[in-house]
Design brief:
With 78 residues, this protein is α+β, with helices and mostly antiparallel strands. It has one helix at 33-49, and strands spanning 2-11, 15-22, 25-30, 54-59, 65-70. It is built from one helix and five strands, in the order βββαββ.
Amino acid sequence: MRHYLIRRRVTRRRGTIWNVTTDDGVYGDYLNEDSAILDAVDAAQEAGEAGHPTQVLTHGLDGTDSVTWTYGDPYPYR
């Protein structure tokens, strides 16, 4: 299964930003979590259509990852 992990980062220069981490690399600097999730779901949907099972996960402040969306869930997201 391919995972798209949404992570929050705090930087001195830009404040809070979000990234999408995959096996292929790190994407982003998104200004809000929703933008990162929407792009990750779009990419996961595309990969799912190509035959790869996918999930979008959100990394919480407590250090755990939770499933936000799985290929086969309603699309477009929200």
